[in-house]
Please model this.
Amino acid sequence: MAAVATAPSRKTETYTDTKRRDDVRGANIAAARAVADAVRTSLGPRGMDKMISSGDQEVIITNDGATILSRMSLLQPAARMLAELSRSQDAAAGDGTTTVVVLAGSLLRRAQSLLAAGAHPTAAADSLHRLAARAVEILEGMAIPIELSDRDSLVKSASTALNSKVVSQYSTLLAPLAVDAAMSVVDPAHPELLDLRDIRLIKKLGGTVDDTELVRGLIFDKKASHAAGGPSRIENAKIAVIQFQVSPPKTDIEQSVIVSDYAQMDRILREERNYILGMVKKIKASGCNVLLIQKSILRDAVTDLSLHYLAKAKILVVKDVERDEIEFITKTLNCLPIANIEHFREEKLGHADLVEEVSVGDGKIVKVTGIKDMGRTATVLVRGSNQLVIDEADRSLHDALCVIRCLVNKRFLIAGGGAPEIEMSMQLAAWAKELHGMESYCIKEFADALEVIPYTLAENAGLNPISIVTELRNRHAKGEKNTGINVRKGQITNILEENVVQPLLVSTSAISLACECVRMILKIDDIVTVR
Model:
């Protein structure tokens, strides 16, 4: 039997060139870190403000992370991911938009050093997933439960959110105002829901931020119609919201009608007058004395002739009400919008004690007060000496309202001033020692990354960040878990006693979203451009 000679099997090593993947990952991390570094100086109560100038000469001064990043023109995809991360935090919690980006930048910096040391991106990404879950548990362990009836705690949380804004000197006015506005729209039947669309912010130039007020009623940022001497003040008002036009009808298609006979022209004008007069009589017969007319895109909602007849009937007219305001107005007035003159009945009207035109700054507004059976809505009139201040006050108030919404959804408070980040960092570092292998090494690195928040707070406040963070670690190691940086006094104190508190949802959302974004960036190893 012939022996079959077999060729000796040789083990061959294949070389895989990973340089391109490393270059792509490195470029993504560098771009994302550059965005994080750009907003890092605006973190905290002593953070700097950014002046954003757009191509059409519009200027915005703000230190709100979401606003800064949304206005940036970012081309690199990973950099745009950080802008979207800030937007996600704004949608989820409303506050902490700068914190989440700074955290992501710090985690990426540590991830870069891990990759340089030979760690696999998947191992680093999986470690981040476990770290996020554990960090949320640590935060929940630090949280303090509150009740919505505890107004002081709500005001403290809103004040903390406002203290880092350009209008921080007005936090003693704006924080209680935001709490009162939010609590007035919470439905007792659904105490866990707070819809911020039920709170309307009206911006009016003139005065100072001190003149900002909460109005128990409605405000229209337009003056009443004064054609033919219409009224500007109505007591015991019966208010109708109409969605039809008080003007002569037009044909459905574009066409011209040529009239050459004067008698026929007179007849057309007479019919128009009779048509409008008939409508005004029906409106007056229902008892209506205030008419809110929706803006029309098909034809003029009102004409000079119809305004003349409405003025004769002593009906106050507010025209050009925007379509998207109708729902808010009808909810506030507890009335129904009227789509056709044939449906104009008294039971569809809203009732108020007073509707009047008021001079505010260099313009006029129409104010409705004393609304009977008013819906659960609130209106805030925001004032300011210039447009930049008004816009920033508007953004700051929105953030304060979002903080209260967080507390309505998840009724827990947590200390601010970098205390939760240091506590998380220390507990996660201790947990890393119990783990083994690459995971332990990765979690230790990422735990150290969380110290960027107290470090940046101290740096922006002009303190020595190294000595402050070292002292913070020392105090937390002794069990003082609510110890944080008091930037006003420039020292470390029990931050709860200083009333620097924030909703638990802001911190848990920030750490979860930052870890998720960094994991996604780490797992990208190539960029494919499709033409």
